[in-house]
Write a structure and sequence with these properties.
About 55% of the residues lie in helices and about 10% in strands. The termini are far apart. Helix 6 crosses helix 8. It has 10 helices and 7 strands. By secondary structure, the chain is of the alpha/beta class. The chain has a 5-stranded parallel sheet, with helices on both faces. It is elongated and about 155 Å long. About 25% of the residues are buried. A hairpin with a 5-residue loop joins strand 3 and strand 4. It folds into 2 domains: about 90 residues; about 180 residues, SGNH hydrolase (Rossmann fold).
Length: about 280
């Protein structure tokens, strides 16, 4: 084969390769065009693809909403607690508004204990250790404004009171005749009403004693306390005084004073005095 023929064959082979490459390129171009058309149809037929949040976005949205709800719930609880606190503070202020400035307390050593723990300095106390119902109106145990000694009736006559509380009877639990106790109690109330006609007279129940104190074998028992309290209620009915059942503020389920509220079974420790005074304030 001469050189001219070899050159011709080489040119023909090159042309074939070029046509093959063009064909491949054409096929590839057609495939790209087809893919573009299919993708475009799918995209425009499903627009939500462009606007739907990703799973992470959806989770974030849920979390945000949950957080918002939790925050609102917390705010609601906070408001509720604030309201509750405001109510409690209002009640406390209401209780504290009674400073007992119009009150006078008459009694024996138990009332002396109440005076010693009372947080209201404006309250007035006419009491001493050993006061009995039979000597309350006759014993000149109090210093009057003129410096002289006077009875509890004399002392009451020097002031003006809206409430007068009597707590007597523990020292009298051994009296054999309860009618005598009632006579003296009735006389005390009427003399108080004479010098303080505008005041409300409260005859307090005798307070309970502890179960261990009952075992000492004398007349200081809770059964006797109940009996004398019934007698005091009868006197209140006759005189118009108000019977104040402070017993229920201090008696446990068995009707006794709790052991840890007294050192001797009769006289009250601070916590018990607080309960007693709280009952008085809340019920008068």
């Amino acid at each position: 084969m001469n050189d001219a023929q070899k050159q011709l064959n080489a040119q023909l082979a090159q042309k074939k390769r070029v046509r093959a490459q063009q064909g491949v390129i054409s096929v590839f171009s057609m495939l790209c065009l087809l893919f573009s058309c299919v993708w475009g149809v799918h995209a425009f037929g499903s627009k939500t693809v462009f606007f739907a949040p990703s799973p992470d976005d959806s989770s974030s949205a849920v979390k945000t909403e949950a957080k918002k709800n939790t925050s609102e719930s917390s705010d609601s609880k906070s408001d509720s607690k604030s309201d509750s606190k405001a109510t409690s503070e209002s009640k406390a202020e209401s209780d504290e508004s009674d400073d007992l400035s119009d009150a006078a307390f008459i009694g024996d050593s138990r009332t002396v204990g109440l005076e010693n723990t009372c947080p209201y300095p404006k309250a007035t106390f006419f009491c001493y250790v050993g006061m009995h119902i039979d000597n309350a109106v006759s014993d000149p145990a109090f210093t009057l404004s003129n410096g002289n000694a006077g009875t509890v009736i004399d002392a009451l006559g020097e002031g003006s009171y809206g409430r007068i509380f009597i707590n007597l009877g523990t020292n009298e639990l051994g009296w054999p005749y309860i009618e005598n106790f009632q006579d003296y109690y009735r006389d005390l109330i009427r003399q108080i009403q004479a010098v303080q006609p505008e005041a409300t007279v409260y005859a307090e129940s005798i307070l309970p004693v502890t179960a261990s104190r009952e075992l000492e074998g004398d007349d200081i028992t809770n059964a006797n306390v109940v009996r004398f309290n019934d007698a005091i209620q009868q006197v209140c009915t006759e005189t118009g005084a108000v019977y104040l059942n402070c017993w229920e503020a201090l008696a446990d389920e068995s009707g006794c004073l709790p052991e840890d509220w007294s050192v001797d079974g009769i006289h009250l420790l601070g916590e018990a005095c607080d309960k007693w005074l709280e009952y008085i304030i809340n019920n008068t």
